Fold this sequence. Notes:
Layout: E1 17-18, E2 23-24, H1 26-40, H2 44-62
Antiparallel strand pairs: 1-2
Helix pairs in contact: 1-2
Amino acid sequence: MNGRCDKCNGRLRNGGHRTATRTLCDKCNAQFLGRAAGMAAGGGVGGAIATSGWLSRIRKARGKDGSAES
């Protein structure tokens, strides 16, 4: 592990998130998980992209640690 995201080359916090083939930063991991969820739900490519954007916006609104902002 080189301390950089394999997708965007951004710096990793807390060691990053390991997938089968990559190490991703928080932002890229959220996109990856959203796309995987969209595909698993049967939405095809369009559903995967939409779910990815939705999950990214939810995580951004909740803050970096995932807790709701007050």
